[in-house]
Amino acid sequence: MSTSLINPFQMAQQQFDHVADLLQLDPAVRDFLRWPQREFHFRIPVHMDDGSVRIFQGYRVQHNDARGPHKGGLRFHPSETIDSVRALATWMTWKCAVADIPLGGGKGGVIVDPATLSTSEKERLVRGWVQQMWKNIGPRLDVPAPDVGTTPQMMGWMMDEYSKLAGEFTPGVITGKPVGGGGSLGRTEATGFGVVYTIREALQHLKIDSRNTRAAVQGFGNVAQYAAIGFQEILGGEVACVSYWDRSDRTSYTVSKASGFDARFLQSITDQYGTIDKAKALDSGYKIEDSEAWLSQEADVLIPAALEGQINALNVHDISSRVKIIAEGANGPTTPEADTVIRERGIFMLPDFLCNSGGVTVSYFESVQNDMNYYWPREEVLQKEDHILTSAFHAVLDMALSQDVYMRDAAYMVAIARVVKAMQLRGWI
Q1: Which residues carry out catalysis?
Q2: For 95-141, what is each residue's pLDDT tens digit?
Q3: Does 55-173 carry CATH code 2.30.40.10?
Q4: Do β-strands 238-246 and 251-256 pair in parallel, antiparallel, or remain unpaired?
Q5: Which of 87, 142, 220, 297 is 20 to 30 A from 60, comparing alpha carbons?
Q6: What is the CATH number of domain 188-350?
């Protein structure tokens, strides 16, 4: 199923409505949380290298700031829509709440394929985004970060542009910056390793030895790369395959190997947009299959770490009977229709806003370090991340067991309850 046929914001609202019914939320509270508090739509003119001017559509959606400043990435993607940004902002609210960090949800985007831009064009585009938004972002207001199609260098340019406009050095306005430019050690691997930390806790709960497990990963961007690396190096498990988007022919492929899969080797032959060098992979004994092959692999753990709507009603039945855990490295990778099937099959679900919350957790640490002007070593950052995600996992698991509900519902129940409590304490409701 094409993701263009799936409205991610409707999916986010459908998930919320289901849990709102379980919690018997007050109608006014429910209506308030179903929609973002505010949205920004704007046009960004950019002078291109050939002397022409192109106009790009930009967005920023601020969903809820009851628990703290809005927090969320900037996605540069040709298929970006306002509904995808709304959905991602909504999920960020729940993600920050379930991790119990003092931030709210936000998300931004630009409709563009960044791979088609030169380095100088990308710099002008991100500085143009800041010029449109700088009065409505800030360390105590809304803190953007990288997402699909954006990089630490782009965050550094954005921080610089904001600092120029604000008239003072303000590293905390953006997270995901390069180390040495206000960034935090451990941020690059944070989301992928966070996926692995929650998988570790789930395997322990299910009494499965991680050293005897295989994982199938969808995607090979930053999150998928470090999820695959962490699955091998932290858990001692085996990776069966990853998938990736090939920019040269605009097609997705699955890269697999019967044994000896080396995630770090594949990372070394992958460009900044997650495209693996097919020829080098084939020369090293890897098999190239179609894009859906990752889903039907004989694996214990599935890690969808690409885009939303990837496990859906049309392909959910392709999941192998061996699969015990689905760990959502991506945001919204499973549609509600597929979720029903997964629940009925008894597959243990690690929902996106729990499973992939390591990135925003370490982004929060980056903001704290920016405020202190004191930076922690990598090991301390990852140790703190592990502690927060382990605590979050067990809070959700305890809710699931005590209320006899699905893990996704339990995560929503924990997150929504925390947001509602903050709204009550502030006198909003």
Answers
A1: 107
A2: 999 999 999 999 999 999 998 999 999 999 999 999 999 999 999 99
A3: no
A4: antiparallel
A5: 220
A6: 3.40.50.720
